[in-house]
Amino acid sequence: MYFCGGFIDISNMIDLYLASDKVLLKEIGQKIKRLRVAANVSQKALAERSGVSAFSISQIENGSNPSLLTLLMILRALNALNMLYLFFEEEQLDPIAMADYLKSHPQPKRASSSKSSIVQPSKPESEW
Asked: What's the confidence (pLDDT) of residue 17?
């Protein structure tokens, strides 16, 4: 499957919508651990780089609930902020869908009166 600029193997992926929050947190923790081990970084070294305690890193790797700020600090220290690209992609409008929408939702027209129907006050004749 082609996804976010590259091919990914979906055969081992969990169904994100069927998985419980606890399972998803465990998966996120395992992913952080895999990134850390692949970078050959200890929990202590990651703690120093990220500003997050080694205890917190251990807890997160074991499936505890990190704050978003903590997650960002860890991903930044692992040079893995690219994992967040999907959160920042702008949605592309499908031109056909937009045209269909505009057809089914016509824009209201401003009410205006015809200039010929406006009665102009008559000017008093000058005494000169």
From this structure: 82
Q: In CATH terms, is domain 18-88 a member of 1.10.260.40?
A: yes
pLDDT at site 121: 61
What CA–CA distances, in Å, run from 71 to 16, 27, 43, 61?
19, 13, 14, 11
Q: For the residues of 40-90, what is the DSSP string, one character each? A: T--HHHHHHHHTS-HHHHHHHHTT----HHHHHHHHHHTT-GGGGHHHHPP
Please enumerate, as own/partner, the contacts of 30-36 that have beta carbons within 8 Å and a separation of 24 or more: 30/61, 32/57, 32/60, 32/61, 32/74, 32/75, 32/78, 33/61, 35/78, 35/80, 36/61, 36/78
Can you tell me which residue has the tokens 């120093």?
Answer: 48
pLDDT per position as a tens digit, 31-47: 999 999 999 999 999 99
- pTM over 0.85? The answer is no
Between 126 and 105, whose confidence is greater? 105
Q: What is the CA radius of gyration of the chain?
A: 30
